[in-house]
Amino acid sequence: MLRRNLSAKETLVLPPQYSGRLFKSSFLTVASVVTAAQYELWACCGLTLLVFLTSVNYWRHPVHGWRRNLDMLAVFCGMSYHLYTARFVPSGHHQLVYYGLALQIFVCYFKARSSHDKDAASKWHMTMHLVGNIANCLLYMVI
Question: What is the pTM of this model?
Answer without folding.
Answer: 0.92
